[in-house]
Amino acid sequence: MDMEISAEELKRILDNISRKNNLTIGDDGFSIETCRSMVAVMDSDSTGKLGFHEFKFLWNNIKKWQELPGALAEAGFRLTDPGRNKNDLYSLIVRRYADQNGEMDFDSYIGCLVRLDTMCRAFKTLDKDNNGTIDLCIEEVRGSCSSPCTPEAEGAGHVLLRLRGGAS
């Protein structure tokens, strides 16, 4: 017996749980792409599947993510920012992941949170001095830069992007 869960098996499990709990997940249940994203993010041992502890961690996150604003706040995102429109980040997310009525099915919701989690992990990895700011050249974002960009590199024709984390 395998004891690990593939993206396809995860889809079947989540579809069954969602149906039993009357969650709106669309006509075909969870998309295989969302399940692949979840496996990719939670697969800490790079097997392409979720072991027991990886699945348990994912399941606990899914249970925590009961409503989007609360989940975003817990992840360190501020939904309001002085000088900007109220709920600016929330509005951007709704426009990207919700339907024309502003409603987001559970599959889109989980896909959104998995992508946010991935971005947070990447940001934390790049924030070497843990000050909530990272510097990237546009070439690094595109993947065409062979060395890390610094403020000094900006004068050498590199376009420097300074990103500040959303955590307060």
CATH-derived architecture of the largest domain: Orthogonal Bundle
Number of strands: 2
Looking across the biggest beta sheet, what order are the strands in?
1-2
Top-tier CATH class of the largest domain: Mainly Alpha
Oligomer: single chain
Gyration radius over CA: 19 Å
Instruction: Give the structural class.
Output: mainly alpha
Query: Roughly how much helix do the residues carry, as a percent range?
Result: 40-55%
For the residues shown, what is the average pLDDT?
74
State the low-pLDDT regions, or none: none
Q: Could you tell me how far the N terminus lies from the C terminus, measured between alpha carbons in angstroms?
A: 46 Å
Shape field: globular
SSE order, one letter for each helix or strand: HHHHHHEHHE
What's the CATH topology name of the largest domain? Answer: Recoverin, domain 1
Protein name: EF-hand domain-containing protein
Domain EF-hand: 30-65
InterPro entries: EF-hand-dom_pair (IPR011992), EF_Hand_1_Ca_BS (IPR018247), EF_hand_dom (IPR002048)
Pfam families: EF-hand_8
